């Protein structure tokens, strides 16, 4: 059961008050459009530019390929509609951490923070920034898959992480400004690719949409594994909740920003995949590690590769910025609640940012990007995240039983929408365990998560009195 201090904080949040019993207070500075930019900018990163090849390899048919992206969009929308209720009712820094703590107690909340620290956040930052480094090298005319340029991509990624950590320490407004600019640039860049593909590529090729589902292009297991890659691309729809404590007029702003931002992502992702198929066949997409650049090369020649590379650079740069803007707030909330080193909840006296949490997160991301490949980072991130998706979105079932539960909006089609989300998530976890190629990696991720249990009882759990 949640602690009494947690409950008092929740009640204050539900009333819409900005007051907090916490000594570490972050000012509310994000309006609606900046909030949408945080969500969209964090989500559109490397996935839509990097994942299609692996997805097409698992589902080598136009219809299965498009179906898995549509399914991922539905999955994200179900989560976002539920999150709108949770975030509106509990608009506090930390997002998922807050919902898990309020619904399921301190140990599950600690395990979420532990997993973010040891697996999720660093893997996300590493995967996104590595795509930044690869497209940077591709834009210079070199192949990032061969030596020594493959190593250079990792170093560039680490440098980008360090720079964005400094920007976010300097202030939320600077981080939000970078987010607004890069979000407009990346969304606009994707739209340009889509328009060029439909205007130039589609009349030339007639599209590569038939046969829609050739023999061997679909299986339930392969669909589940491909959906994991799609979820990497869609992940970010929940990140705005992690900075909920810094959103102005949160009960009104958060639900609107979460739903509008998620719908805009679903639309551009489906259009992008239609654009890719308008220019390249499924077999060509399977071999296109940097698919957007290959599409642009086919459409307008080498200058297209340069333009796409700039778009992806801005996209991944903005996504790294968004992840460093949102992720450290989890560790800030964890420390502020007494579940982590208290110093991590420190607020910079001048910049009013959780600077210790930001620098710690950036350092972990740099370590991961120097030691892991993109595929390893993406698999670690998605597998660990799925566990806590169930706990955080499933929290709505528990929290609705509270007499003081007063969200500004309620999840439509409740309980079907959150139940569908949770059941789909559990299917993905079971599917990963059943697949021989994924089983040991999945068990390894679970092992790291469960290692947090003895860590909890040997540290913060041991310090709490029985009646706390």
TrEMBL record:
Bilayer topology: Multi-pass membrane protein
For this UniProt entry, which segments traverse the membrane? 30-49, 69-90, 111-132, 152-172, 184-203, 215-237, 257-279, 299-320, 355-374, 380-399, 411-434, 440-459
* Pfam families per record: AA_permease_2
Q: Which domain of life, per UniProt?
A: Bacteria
**MF GO annotations:** L-amino acid transmembrane transporter activity
Q: Does the keyword Nucleotide-binding apply?
A: no
Gene3D superfamilies the UniProt entry points to: Amino acid/polyamine transporter I (1.20.1740.10)
| Keywords assigned | Membrane, Transmembrane, Transmembrane helix
Region (Disordered) residue ranges read 1-24
Gene Ontology cellular-component annotations: membrane
In this chain, composition skew of type Low complexity spans 1-17
Q: Where in the cell is it found?
A: Membrane
The identity of this protein, by name, is Amino acid permease
